[in-house]
Amino acid sequence: MIEILDWIGRFTTVLLLIAIVAGVYTWAKGILPAMLRLGKGLAKRKIGIFAKGDNFNSLKDLLLDSKLFNSKNITHISSKSDFGKAEDQTLFLVFWPDFEDSLDEIMKLKKDGTALVVYAPQESGVIPRDKINILNAKRNVILTNFRGRLLNDIVVSLITTSYEG
Question: In whole angstroms, what is the distance from residue 156 CA to residue 160 CA?
C-alpha cells in the first residue's frame, strides 16, 4: 500500500511541476509583454492634449488624478499655431468641441503608430457622420463620449500602440 501511495505522490509531483512551468510560460508570453508595454507607455509616452482653457485643465487633472501619468509627459496644444508641438507626441487627446474645425490638420499630424483619442461629450452635440468616417478611416483612433470611459481608452491605447524610444 505504501508503494502505491509513493508512486501516486511522485506522479502528482510531476503534474504539479508541469503545471507550474506551463503557468509561468503562459504568463510570460501573455501578460508580461502587455505589462511591459503599459509600463513603458505610462513612463515615457508623450500625450498631447488638444483643448482650450478649462477643458485642458480638466483633462490634465483627470490624467494626473489617476496617479498613472507624469505631468512632464503632457503637452498643451491650445491652437492651430501650437500644432508643431504635437510632432513628437505619441498619443493625441482631442477635446472635440474645441477642435472640431481642425480635424483635417490633426489627422495630417497623426502618424500610423500614434493613438488618437477623441473626447466628444454628448452635451456638446453629435459629431457629423462625415467626420466620423474620417476618424474611422485611420488606425488607432478611439471616439468616446464619457469621461469615465476616457481614462480606460487612453490606457488601452498606450498598451496597443507601438512605442519607439
Answer: 6
Buried b (16+ CB within 10 A) or exposed e, 66-75: eeebeeebbb
The whole-angstrom separation of Cα 132 and Cα 107 is 12
| Amino acid identity for residue 145 in this structure | N
Amino acid at 57: N
pTM, full prediction: 0.78
Q: What is the pLDDT of residues 60-74, one digit of tens each?
A: 999 999 988 889 999
Residue among 27, 26, 98, 93 nearest 63 (CA) = 93
Three cell numbers, residue 104: 483635417
Quote the CA–CA distance of 125 and 121 in Å, as a whole number: 7
Task: For residues 28 and 127, give the distance between their C-alpha atoms in angstroms, rounded to a whole number.
Answer: 42
Do strands 74-77 and 47-50 pair parallel, antiparallel, or not at all (unpaired)? parallel
Contact of 95 with 50, CB cutoff 8 Å: yes
Which residues are CB-contacts of 55 (< 8 A; sequence separation ≥ 6)? 95, 97, 98
Query: Which amino acid, 72?
Result: K
